[in-house]
Amino acid sequence: MLPVVAYQVADSIDIKGFRQAFTAHLHHGDADELFFVIGPEKCIYVFKYGIACFLAHSETEVSAFLQLLVPFCRNPTEKRLSEDFLVEPHAESDSSGYNKVELRNASIDAFRIIMLNVSQSVALDFYNEQTDELLKETNHYTQSLERNGKLGLSGQSLKRKIGRTLNLKNRIAENLYIFDAPDETWENEYLNGLDQGLKRNFDLQSRYRSIQEDLAIVKENLELFKDLLQDRNSTMLEWIIILLILVEVVNIFAEKIFK
Q1: Which residue among 14, 42, 44, 86 is buried most deeply as judged by most CB within 10 Å?
Q2: What is the pLDDT of residues 179-224, one digit of tens each?
Q3: pLDDT tens digits along 80-126
């Protein structure tokens, strides 16, 4: 059995910089990801969205590589999310389960597809945590609105939360290819079946939709908050205008009386 483990180590990784620094054999690389073949059944996969995935590496080797990766990480995560998986590369038949896949036709491309899906699963966990945090924050303000009739949120804070939500939506759209098949699967039925089976095992599509639905709720709440703040500011402006008019009227009467 070959162990696969993926770690979310940062918000993002400088792929271009790391490609120049790491000299192992690069089997596949582009602006978003780097797939290194270290040996016949030993690989490393690094993704722009902050994930490093390892096939058949010891804990010591993983730790050393992650240390090497640190200078290229932006906003390293305090708590590293991870996911483990097992690959049997010399099985009599193909089969897959909750945390294991057996292959009769193991290849570097098959390993890459497995590592890609494990990494996407970890990324979904990472984005789900951030979405849950946003949802809890907006729920706090909706509860305050229900209890006190007040939002308790400044315009500047609201803008920051809207920005966080939009940035998270954009990052998910850019970095997750849940509904797209890797190029290798387009003309290879075996690899395509492996990819589709792994997507089902990890429940990637429904987890992705759940995150999108939660983000839609957050966005709807923030839009409501924005409308409420605009109404409050409009009302305040109206009162200021009324007070200014009253002051002007009082000044006019005072001038006439004292004359």
Answers
A1: 44
A2: 677 777 778 888 888 888 899 898 888 998 898 888 888 888 777 7
A3: 899 999 988 887 787 877 788 888 888 899 999 999 999 999 999 99
Q: How many CB atoms lie within 10 A of CB 26?
A: 12
User: Position of tokens 């690959």?
Assistant: 87
d(CA 204, CA 70): 28
Domain annotation covers residue 230 = no
**Cα torsion through 210, 215, 221, 225, rounded to 10:** 170
Q: How far apart are CA 200 and CA 96, in angstroms?
A: 10
Number of domains within the chain? 1
Question: What percent of the chain stands above pLDDT 70?
Answer: 80
Query: For the CA atoms of the chain, what is the radius of gyration?
Result: 27
In a domain, 10, yes or no: yes
Q: Is residue 243 part of a domain?
A: no
Spatial distance between the Cα atoms of 23 and 25, rounded to a whole number of angstroms:
7
> Which positions ≥6 away from 254 have C-beta within 8 Å?
none
Report d(CA 112, CA 53) in Å as an integer. Answer: 10
- Structure confidence at residue 146 (pLDDT): 66
Range of the domain at 212: 2-223
Residue 235 lies in a domain: no
Answering whether pTM is above 0.70, one says yes
Run of H or E including 53? strand 51-55
Tell me how far apart the alpha carbons of residues 180 and 244 are, in angstroms, rounded to a whole number.
61
Burial 166-187 (b: 16+ CB within 10 A, else e): eebbebbeebbebeeebebbee
Distance between CA 24 and CA 62 in Å, rounded?
15
Q: How many CB atoms lie within 10 A of CB 143?
A: 10
